[in-house]
Amino acid sequence: MTATIQNVFAAAMSLDTDARRDLAERLWDVVQTQDEAVFSEATWHEIGLRVAASDACVVEHVDGLRALAEVRAEFGLPSIG
Known about the structure:
By secondary structure, the chain is mainly α. It has two domains: about 1-40, no CATH class; about 40-80, no CATH class. Helix content is about 60%, strand content about 0%. It is built from four helices and no strands. The chain has helices at about 5-15, 15-30, 40-55, 65-75. The longest helix has 15 residues, at about 15-30. The chain starts with a helix and ends in a 7-residue tail after the last helix.
C-alpha cells in the first residue's frame, strides 16, 4: 500500500497534540541536514540545561522589557521610553 502525503497528514491530524509534536520533531530530524542545523549539539545541551533549571524552579524568570532595562543600565545606556 502506497501512502500519499494527504493520507499521512490526515492520519497525523488524528493524533493528540503531543503525538503530533513528537512526529514533527522526528520528521524534522530526518530531513534536516547537518549544514541546516539551527543549533549545534552544544547549544541544544545548553537549552536542555536551562529548561531543566526552569522546570526545577531554580532560576528567576524576567520579562523582556525588564531584562533589556537591566542590560542597558549595566552598560550605562539610556533607558527607552
